[in-house]
Amino acid sequence: QVQLVESGGGLVQAGGSLRLSCAASGNTFSINTIAWHRQAPGKQREFLAKINTDGRIVYADSVRGRFTISRDNAKNTVYLQMNSLKPEDTAVYYCNGRRAWTEVGPYWGQGTQVTVSS
User: Fold this and answer.
1) DSSP strand pairing (10-13 vs 112-117)
2) What distances in angstroms separate CA 51 from CA 12, 88, 100, one per listed residue?
3) Which residues contact 20 (CB under 8 A, 6 or more apart)?
4) How far is CA 58 from CA 50, 55, 87, 115, in A?
5) Residue 105 to residue 68: CA distance in whole angstroms
6) Do 7 and 113 form a contact (C-beta atoms < 8 A)?
7) What is the CA radius of gyration of the chain?
8) pLDDT (0 to 100) of residue 53
9) In this predicted structure, what is the pLDDT of residue 33?
10) Which element (helix H / strand E) includes 65?
11) DSSP calls for 9-52
C-alpha cells in the first residue's frame, strides 16, 4: 500500500503564492507517477499536473505558466509551486500516485484546502 499526505494549503491573497507538498510513504517503489488535481465546491475534480519518477511533466492548460510541479525522489515528495494565484484557484488540492500503464493505484491523499481571496 501507498499513503499520500498533502500539506501546504492555506489562505492567500490574489497574486500570492503557495507551495504544496505530497509526501508518499509505504510501498513507494510501486508507483512512478504523481499527479495533482483540485476540486472546487460544486465542480468536478480537475487535473492540474503530473510528474513521473524520471521528471517528465504534463500540465493542464488552466495552470500552465503559473504552477510548477517538481519532485524529490530521495524524500518521496512531490511539490506544486503555485504562483499568481487567482480566486478561481480556490479548491481542495489532492495528489495521487500510480504506476503508469499498470493497475497499480491510483492512491489518493486526503487533500489540502487552498483559498485565494480577492
Assistant:
1) parallel
2) 25, 24, 11
3) 6, 7, 8, 9, 36, 79, 80, 82, 93, 95, 112, 114
4) 5, 10, 23, 24
5) 23
6) no
7) 14
8) 87
9) 94
10) none
11) -EEEETT--EEEEEEEEESGGG--EEEEEEE-TTS--EEEEEEE
The residue with cell 503564492 is 17
Cell numbers describing residue 30: 510501486
For the record, the C-alpha cell of 72 comes out as 524529490
Q: Which helix (H) or strand (E) holds 76?
A: none
Q: Report the C-alpha gap between 108 and 37 in whole angstroms.
A: 10
Q: Which residues of the chain have pLDDT under 70?
A: none
Bridge-based pairing of strands 33-39 and 46-52 is antiparallel
Are 39 and 19 in contact, with CB atoms under 8 Å apart?
Answer: no
Quote the CA–CA distance of 46 and 40 in Å, as a whole number: 9
pLDDT single digits (tens) 19-33 = 999 999 999 989 999
Per-residue confidence (pLDDT) for residue 77, from 0 to 100? 95
